[in-house]
Design brief:
There is one protein chain. This protein is an all-alpha fold. Helices cover 69% and strands 0% of the residues. The protein has 7 helices and no strands. It is elongated.
């Protein structure tokens, strides 16, 4: 009997010792994470908007119509992070059972959004590389130099002007393409005027004046942009998911030390 009492006393003392440091630590961590959520919301929104705008500017090069989905998910998560940060700081200051429950629900929604966005970003980053090469090669081959509205003409010109590039791999991709689609002899092959540098106003795509042309290919520049934004969104979502798990654990510790009060809705004494 004495041994049982000793064990009970020891367990009680350990519980009190744990409570003395664990709960304040959980409050401090939750308050810190609340402020972090506000800052990371801006970073995540930047990645989401960047990805959406990239898809909007180059949508004719992407066969996958859901490429902007990771960006929209990241943007939605960034918006939800703002009230989540407010709740986290509020719960750390004054524990409210309803606020703790709302915070837990928001953290679960954020985890779902960010994990989905990270997985899709990684998936599209790998898949888009081969699709971009085939699509750009097709548009270059279909380019019609004599009609600005010909099939493939305008998208290629827009990409080359925006990225300041020429061709798929480099400017030599136009040597065969212009001879085939523009019906020019190989020795007179030239590049579109969209390959010309802006400071040369009289440039007409003549290959005898290479200093007036962009010589780097568009594919590498576009792949680098796509890889950067996808990797940015992926790591933002991954880091935030880890921080939200920490916030969830901290909130759970505070909830464990504050059990629900008995709610007796159908108690006869309530209506007496």
């Amino acid at each position: 009997m004495r041994q049982v009492r000793a064990v009970m006393v020891l367990s009680s003392s350990l519980w009190c010792y744990e409570d003395s440091w664990l709960r304040p630590f959980a409050r401090s961590l939750l308050r810190f994470l609340g402020f972090i959520f506000w800052g990371t919301a801006a970073a995540l929104a930047f990645g989401g908007v960047f990805l959406i705008l990239m898809y909007k500017n180059y949508r004719y090069l992407f066969q996958e119509s859901f490429l902007a989905l990771p960006g929209w998910l990241a943007l939605a998560a960034a918006l939800i992070l703002l009230p989540t940060g407010v709740l986290a700081t509020s719960v750390s200051a004054k524990s409210s059972r309803y606020q703790q429950g709302a915070l837990m629900y928001l953290l679960l929604i954020l985890l779902w959004l960010e994990i989905s966005s990270a997985v899709l970003a990684q998936f599209y980053s790998i898949r888009m590389a081969s699709e971009l090469k085939s699509t750009m090669g097709y548009l270059v081959y279909q380019y019609n130099g004599t009609h600005s509205q010909g099939p493939g003409s305008r998208p290629v010109d827009v990409v080359q002007r925006k990225l300041q590039c020429c061709g798929v791999q480099n400017y030599t991709d136009w040597l065969k393409a212009t001879a085939a689609s523009w019906h020019l002899p190989a020795e007179k092959a030239r590049v579109p005027e969209s390959c010309c540098k802006e400071k040369y106003s009289h440039c007409r795509g003549d290959l005898h004046h290479l200093e007036q042309l962009f010589q780097e290919g568009c594919l590498k520049k576009l792949e680098d942009q796509l890889h950067f934004v996808m990797l940015y969104v992926f790591w933002c979502c991954t880091v935030l998911s880890i921080l939200e798990l920490l916030a969830g654990v901290s909130n759970s510790i505070l909830m464990r030390h504050q059990p629900f009060h008995d709610v007796r809705i159908l108690d006869s004494s309530t209506f007496s």
